[in-house]
Amino acid sequence: MKLQHKITMILATMIASLIILLTLSMYVTWYRSIQRQVAMDAMDQAVIIAENPNIKDSISDENGYIAVNKMVESIHLKTGIQYLYVLNGEGVYFAHPIPEKLNTHYDSEDIKLDPVQTKPTYYYEMTRNAMVEGYAPIYTDGIRSGTVIVGIYNGRILQTMSGFAMQLVVFAFIAIGIGIFVAYALSKNIKRSIYGLEPVEIAMLLKDREIILENIGEGLLAVNHLGEITMINSRAKSLLDQEDLEVGMPYSALVFSEFFGDYEALGDGNMEKEWRIGASKLLKIEWIALHDVDARLGWLFRIEDMSLLRKRAEELTNMQQLTQALRAQNHEFMNKLHTISGLIQLESYEDALQYIEKISVTRQAVIGILNEKVKVPFISGLVLAKYSKATERHIEFVIEPTSYLEAMPEHVIEDDVASIIGNLIDNAIDSIAGKSGARIGLSLNSDENGATFIIRDNGTGIKDLPIEKCFEKGVSTKGPDRGYGLYIVDEKLRRAGGRLTVVNDNGLVCTVFIPAIQEEV
Asked: What is the pTM of this model?
């Protein structure tokens, strides 16, 4: 058989098959469309019935099913509804086409969906003997008191479809005839141009690819080995605040290219970095090198918005600090109340008054300093919590009078700052707890250059190993399973572009500096 005839037969068969499938698909689509429309009509009728004031008034009565069923029968006769149920809030039939089922609990075989619906809905399925159902809740005084269910069998839908079916059959025969003629005409010209895919199929694949990329919650963009953007979705444009980015633009047009360096320096593996845009948006950018055998094709970037996650973490940290402060204050106040109670029982009233005045003045002085000198709420909460913890362990906690913290640098993360300062103060408390005359000094200051925190204690300092060794993970003078505090502090400070200085000076002095503008690394 000649190639032309083979191509003609194959194309004719394909065209005929496609038309048959298309006809069936159109029939199913029409059937579903009509079925869905009938289901929505049933739902609308159910809503109208559910809003009937007489039904609303009777649905909550114990014997209201008599009146409800009578009203429903009247409605049933005036419409094309084939069956109609009304259930009260307890699932009891208040209306049913079978009288014996009135005032009985509903049967799950009669109803396709859960009757406890909070909003109108509908149900349908693609079977010949099935039905469509519309559901609408009944609300009395804002409280769901029952459900209306309207049902219509699919037989009525099939009657409506019979006319469409004949038209589809005629359409199919005409289309197949035309297809055979076209296949014969085209077979002479397509011998060298058959690649296995029809133009429609290629277009559908491209459209599906575009839809998938646009509906992924993450930002995606690809850069080829020449440094050109070959793919980017709208989510990536939105996250980067670059709506003007287009395929074909150079890698250097990306706002993070200066931060990450030239595209050739991205490497052949997988890496990720966090990158902040302004004061409120934190992005995690991960890139993967794409390879084909030994050749590098380019890189795929995945961009996630970490801002909300960071914000929730910071809120949780603030709540934890508040909880710790309240717990410490409660324990501290209970001890003081016991002391006051003992002095009163001993009738040492003058001593009790002096004691009350002493502790009140001390605490009010700390709170006054925080209110006056520290204008960053989460730092105030953290310091107050650590003050209570230190006081509970009989450690004098002093905030330097020269302190004044107006604001934190915009690029820093609250959770990181809380972890840095909290770890350093906890280390100081642990190192001098139980020592006579234990004392911790804290200085907090900010200016145009950045924020500075100094934590000083009067302990023994670090003498058993070099200070720089303490920044390594797992290294500690406190024993095994310790040594993570200064490591975490150092890592978080590096991320914020800050630095930590630790010296021995009649104890340990830790100085934290966070610059106002983060230096690029």
From this structure: 0.41
